[in-house]
């Protein structure tokens, strides 16, 4: 059975996620996103009448759901397997993009929002981070880690991985991922044994 081809709308959202992961939110325009996704500019405005914030929000949600699916599946084998899969997912992105792409969720999170406003994309990024933390914390609790420690360790994992992806891009090396992976795995193994 073949997988159906993505719709123009899906291509635009995926293209936006890719561009945001490479350039950041402020440097990503709707016009460039349509061109990158090989979609007519008019269809972009049709699908996203609220403009760039709506498109960015959906790109963040797409990335969050994609990573959560992978994480959820791998966590069935336990928190160490989930950690490895999470790290491998981001390793694939930075290596396959020749260190040009990172995480669009992080990219949206570090952009300065307009004064007195919480953009929907930023709120979506917070939700994504919370979902990833929740999945990791749940797996840790299932493997005997106390709830508070599980929550803290899950936050550490997500924060460390996101920061490490940025470091990999800057250094054009996966060494930061290797170092982070070793230390996070040791922490998780130690927490499970305690």
UniProtKB/TrEMBL annotation:
Cross-referenced SUPFAM superfamilies, in alphabetical order?
A: Homeodomain-like, Tetracyclin repressor-like, C-terminal domain
Q: Which residues bind DNA?
A: 29-48
The answer on whether this UniProt entry bears the keyword Transcription reads yes
Q: Where is the HTH tetR-type domain?
A: 6-66
Gene3D superfamilies, alphabetized: Tetracycline Repressor, domain 2
Q: Which PROSITE patterns match?
A: HTH_TETR_2
The record's keywords, sorted A to Z, are: DNA-binding, Transcription, Transcription regulation
Q: Which Pfam families match?
A: TetR_C_13_2 (PF21993), TetR_N (PF00440)
Domain of life here?
A: Bacteria
Q: What is this protein called?
A: TetR/AcrR family transcriptional regulator
List the source organism: Streptomyces massasporeus
Q: What is the lineage of its organism?
A: Bacteria, Bacillati, Actinomycetota, Actinomycetes, Kitasatosporales
């Amino acid at each position: 059975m073949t997988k159906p081809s993505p719709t123009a709308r899906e291509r635009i959202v995926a293209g936006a996620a890719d561009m945001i992961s490479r350039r950041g939110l402020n440097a990503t325009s709707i016009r460039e996103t349509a061109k990158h996704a090989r979609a007519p500019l008019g269809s972009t405005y049709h699908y996203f009448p609220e403009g760039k914030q709506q498109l960015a929000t959906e790109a963040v949600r797409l990335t969050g759901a994609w990573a959560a699916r992978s994480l959820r599946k791998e966590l069935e084998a336990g928190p160490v397997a989930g950690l490895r899969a999470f790290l491998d997912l981001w390793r694939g992105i930075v290596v396959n993009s020749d260190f040009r792409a990172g995480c669009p969720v992080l990219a949206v999170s570090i952009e300065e929002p307009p004064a007195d406003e919480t953009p929907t994309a930023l709120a979506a990024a917070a939700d994504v981070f919370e979902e990833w933390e929740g999945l990791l914390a749940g797996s840790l609790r299932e493997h005997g880690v106390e709830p508070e420690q599980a929550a803290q360790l899950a936050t550490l994992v997500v924060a460390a991985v996101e920061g490490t992806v940025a470091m990999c891009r800057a250094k054009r090396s996966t060494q930061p991922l290797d170092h982070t992976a070793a230390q996070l795995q040791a922490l998780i193994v130690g927490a499970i044994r305690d």
